[in-house]
Each structure stands twice: as structure tokens, then as C-alpha cells.
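Attaching the record inline, Q. Sequence:
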Amino acid sequence: MATGKKIAVVCTGAVGGYAGAHMVKAGEDVTFIDFWPEHVEHMKQHGLTITHLRDVEPFTVPARALHVTELQQISKEKPFDIAFVCTKSYDTAWATAMIKQY
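Structure, as predicted:
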């Protein structure tokens, strides 16, 4: 059941991608924010695909993806209700400071 919350997933690696994709699959409004331009472009064009080692079918979800340099585009939108910061520990401080204003 979708919550109706606007959700940001900051850094779409293994943890952020997996969690965010399942939230999209459940009907949530998720924006993926990443600092790798190639990854962002791939998500924009092809969605986000989740695969497993075994016994679970891969799936792809449509992804609203933004590069960190594109965040200014959403400054006039409703702010995020929830932000999942899914970075390595050494990137947590800057990623949290970055998303806090949105």
C-alpha cells in the first residue's frame, strides 16, 4: 500500500537501488539521485533493473533519476517527505547536507 509520500533515494547503488526499486514497485513516488552521470542516463532511458543471485525473477521499474547537478530543477516542487541516504559512510555528511534543502 503506497503511503503518498514523496521519497528521495540518494545514491542508487546496491542498497539504494534495491530499496528504491521495491518502493517504486509498491507504488511509491520515488526520485533516485546519483552522482554517476552514466548511471543516471541509463535509469532515465531504461529504468532500474534489479537482479538476484538465484530463485527470484529480475524486474525493472521506471525511474525518475537525477544527477546531483540537476537537483536545482526540483527546487520549486513539493519537498521530499523522506530521504534515504544510501552512501558509503564517508559520503554520508555531504549527501545528507545536499538533500536536506529539498
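Residues 14-25 form the longest helix (12 residues). The chain is about 30% helix and 25% strand.

More tomorrow.
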